Amino acid sequence: MTDIHEMNDLFEQRNIYLTPPASVDDQIKILRSRGMLVDDYAYAKDFLEEVYFHRFLSYSVPFLANGDSRRYQLNTKFADVVKVYEFDSQLRSLLLDAIEKIEISVRTQFTNLSWKYGSHFYLNHKLFRDHRQLNDSIERIQFQIKSGHDLLVSEYYHRYNDPAMPPVWIAVELTTIGQLTKLFMNLKHAEDKEAVAQRYQIHYSVLQAIMDNLTLIRNYSAHHTRIWNRHFNFECSLDNQHQLISHALCDGSRMYSVLVLITYILKTLGVEQPFYKRLIGLISIYNINVDLMGFPSDWQDNFSILLHGKK
């Protein structure tokens, strides 16, 4: 009869990762053994010396034969996977550029509350619901003040020593998109949140959901994570006036939904056309199967509604 300790030892052994690292030459052998065509060996070797093997493999998944994780579809080329890899890189750059515009706009709307409450309103606990969360936000800004060596911060402290924190238009420069969203949603009065959200013609709860989701996308993009065909867990918030937005937030969890949300916000800012044209250009140049990005069959009609208000 097998001793319980022996069974535990066997179980632990079965869960030990023992696969040795493969050299670049061996990596190419693995790809070829799985049916991938590597026409230019030198190019493939140069590429894999700069892009680690398992990162490359994650981009090759759409090319696998159905039901076989160890075999590629017929005529799959190394260059085909590199194309998708390059598309993903370009897409991340496009998303970061768009999210930058959105983040700066929301910062501006939040800062404009200073017209009502004064330059340091973000330090006033009476204007916020959760005092503990506000204290956390302030501490994070203080940390950035001490470690960031920001020019505007230095200029403020060169001239003033009271208040101990800079005005809101300097402080928001030190916040991440996630911290900005928390400050915005921590506002106590609904009319203040509405004042921020009205620029985008949506309810403030919808703006929060969009900002939370864009925070996730921004972090993926900034850390160079594969994003083009990823599944996301989005925060749902219904908007009865914008069915496409509600669908993107509550029924979609793919890159298509991200692009719908970004296009909508950029439309309210009047800068949607360059984003959309570049997106369509990238899809065309790299010959991307948009089904893998969660695009529905009527995606062109949907973007037409977003861009022009009609099909």
How do you describe this structure in short?
The chain has 16 helices and no strands.
Report the sheet-strand fraction. under 5%
Low-confidence stretches: none
Rg of Cα set: 25 Å
Order of helices and strands: HHHHHHHHHHHHHHHH
Structural class: mainly alpha
Largest sheet: none
Distance N to C terminus: 73 Å
Q: Determine the fraction of residues in helical runs and give it as a percent range.
A: 55-70%
Verbal overview:
With about 300 residues, this protein is an all-alpha fold. Helix content is about 60%, strand content about 0%. It is built from 16 helices and no strands. Helix 2 crosses helix 3. The longest helix is centred in the first third of the chain and has 34 residues, at about 80-110. The relative contact order is 0.09. The model has no long low-confidence stretch (mean pLDDT about 90).
Core attributes:
311 residues; mainly alpha; 61% helix; 0% strand; globular
Task: Outline the fold blueprint.
Elements: H1 4-14, H2 24-33, H3 41-50, H4 53-60, H5 78-111, H6 114-117, H7 131-148, H8 151-159, H9 168-171, H10 177-185, H11 190-197, H12 204-222, H13 243-250, H14 255-269, H15 272-285, H16 299-308
